[in-house]
Each structure stands twice: as C-alpha cells, then as structure tokens.
Amino acid sequence: MDRTGSGRLLRRKILIVDDSTIVRMVATLILTNAFYRLVSAVNGEDGVRAAAAERPDLILMDVVMPKMDGLEACRRLREQDATKTTPIILVSTRGEPESVEKGFASGCTDYLTKPINARELLYTIRKHIGG
C-alpha cells in the first residue's frame, strides 16, 4: 500500500477481466479480503477500455473470453503507453506448456491456472505490486 502526503493508505487497484461471473466473484472475495480495490470487465474489449479509464495497478485476466480473448487484449494493453508496464496476470484452465508460452508471448507478466488457488493468487499479486 502507498501512503499519500496526508498519511492515508491507498489500496492498490486490480482490474479483473473474466467472462465467468463465478470466477469474478471468487476473485473478488479473495482480493477484497486482502484489501485491494477492484474493478471488473467481462471480456477483452471491455478490459482494454477499463484499463485505459481506471489505470489499475495490476490486471488479472482470463484467456478464453468472447469478443476478444485475453491474449489479444494483453497485446493491445502492451501497445498503450498507459498500460505498457502494468503487470498482467493471465488466468486460464489451459495450463499446458504451449498455452503458457502463448501467454508470455502476448506480453503477460505471469500466468496462473484455474481453479484459482487463493494463496497462489495472493502471492503472485504481492510479488508484482505488494499489498
């Protein structure tokens, strides 16, 4: 957490991008209890727009989504100045080496597999943005 000039603590903001309501709910429960501020989007297109508007400290994004998948969204986020260096953690049911390799090739910072493991998720987020 960062401190403002007034001594108040600022909670880090995380953008959750996933088309599954249940996955967004689970991630919200885990991350709200860890004192992160959360915003969400339901597909890659909305995620790219939300990242530009919200300027999150970290993006947690599904790979398989309608309209625009997480790999394409990740590539687009890396092309924008505002999100060029924002940590992006891709989360997918696809954990085979080829899928993980495609994730990193798209520009992600880290890659986790579903189902989400709370301890692993929190460790990975804290590794990239603290909190």
Layout of secondary structure:
Elements: E1 2-3, E2 9-10, E3 13-17, H1 21-33, E4 37-41, H2 44-54, E5 58-62, H3 70-79, E6 88-92, H4 97-105, E7 110-113, H5 118-129
Parallel strand pairs: 3-4, 3-5, 5-6, 6-7
Antiparallel strand pairs: 1-2
Helix pairs in contact: 2-3
In short:
The protein is an alpha/beta fold and 131 residues long. The protein has helices spanning 21-33, 44-54, 70-79, 97-105, 118-129, and strands at residues 2-3, 9-10, 13-17, 37-41, 58-62, 88-92, 110-113. It has a 5-stranded parallel sheet, with helices on both faces. Strands 1-2 form a two-stranded antiparallel ribbon.
Q: Any idea what the shape is?
A: globular
Distance between the termini: 5 Å
Binned, the helix content reads 40-55%
Determine the mean pLDDT.
91
Sheet with most strands: strand arrangement? 4-3-5-6-7
Counted up, domains total 1
- Element string (H = helix, E = strand): EEEHEHEHEHEH
Largest sheet: 5 strands, parallel
Could you name the CATH class? Answer: Alpha Beta
- Can you tell me the residue ranges where pLDDT is under 50 for at least 5 consecutive residues? 1-8
Please tally the β strands and state the result: 7
Strand content: 15-25%
CATH architecture: 3-Layer(aba) Sandwich
- Superfamily (CATH H level) name: Response regulator
Number of helices: 5
- Mind telling me the C-alpha Rg? 14 Å
Q: What is the CATH third-level topology name?
A: Rossmann fold
Broad structural category: alpha/beta
